[in-house]
Amino acid sequence: MKTYNLLLIFSMILLPEIAFSQSGFYDFKVKTLEGSDFSFASLKGKKVMIVNTASKCGFTPQYKDLEELYEQSGGKLVIIGFPANNFAGQEPGSASEIREFCTKNYGVTFPMMEKISVKGDDMHPLYKWLTSKDKNGVMDSEVKWNFQKYLIDENGKLVDVIYSREKPGSDKVMAWLARK
After folding, report:
1. What is the rounded distance in angstroms from the CA atom of residue 127 to the CA atom of residue 116?
2. Which carries the bigger pLDDT value, residue 11 or residue 103?
3. Portion of the chain with pLDDT greater than 70, in percent
4. Considering only CA atoms, which of 108, 109, 129, 126 is closest in space to residue 117?
5. Is 180 in contact with 84 (CB distance < 8 Å)?
């Protein structure tokens, strides 16, 4: 036990960037489409689905499926949409245009955040965490297209990635939601 404590202290002194650089899911803070602060700490104890969205994509009708899943979950699942313009310029709109589109066409009530980048040199820190095993402790992945979904459990641990072609209410997602 003493050796372990000494090694821990030694590593924290000599390697502070490693000892303290690891962010957890609940450490993230983002802005909503309306510009308000949103802390992921408020999500503790809930299952979360993070999805990168776009208004002009072949998968855009998944907004309807996401909203249905969100409503049916009875508060057990929080879906968080992140508009991104990383794929074929399919999310060119401003925050107000995105909000209007989502509300008018799909009745979206789940939280929608400000537009971010989900890949490349300007990738948002949340997506760096979601896609890097070094950061999330579970798996590496790559955001391949719009409407890719990341599943986070009640303890803030990454569980799985669901690619765009798989609908939000797929058997895989429903089985995950049913697990305690």
Report:
1. 9
2. 103
3. 88
4. 126
5. no
Rg (CA), the chain: 18
Q: Which of 105, 136, 146, 155 is catalytic?
A: 105
Measured distance CA(126)–CA(131) in Å, rounded: 9
pLDDT at 84: 98
Q: Are 136 and 129 in contact (CB under 8 A)?
A: yes
Contact status, residue 139 vs residue 133, Cβ threshold 8 Å: yes
To the query of whether residue 5 is one of the catalytic residues in this protein, the response is: no
Q: Work out the number of other CB atoms within 10 angstroms of the CB of residue 157.
A: 13
Question: Domains along the chain?
Answer: 23-178 (3.40.30.10)
Position 8 scores a pLDDT of 44
Helix (H) or strand (E) holding 149: strand 149-152
Binned at pLDDT 50, 70 and 90, residue 19 comes out as very low
Question: Rounded CA gap, 157 and 176, in Å?
Answer: 13
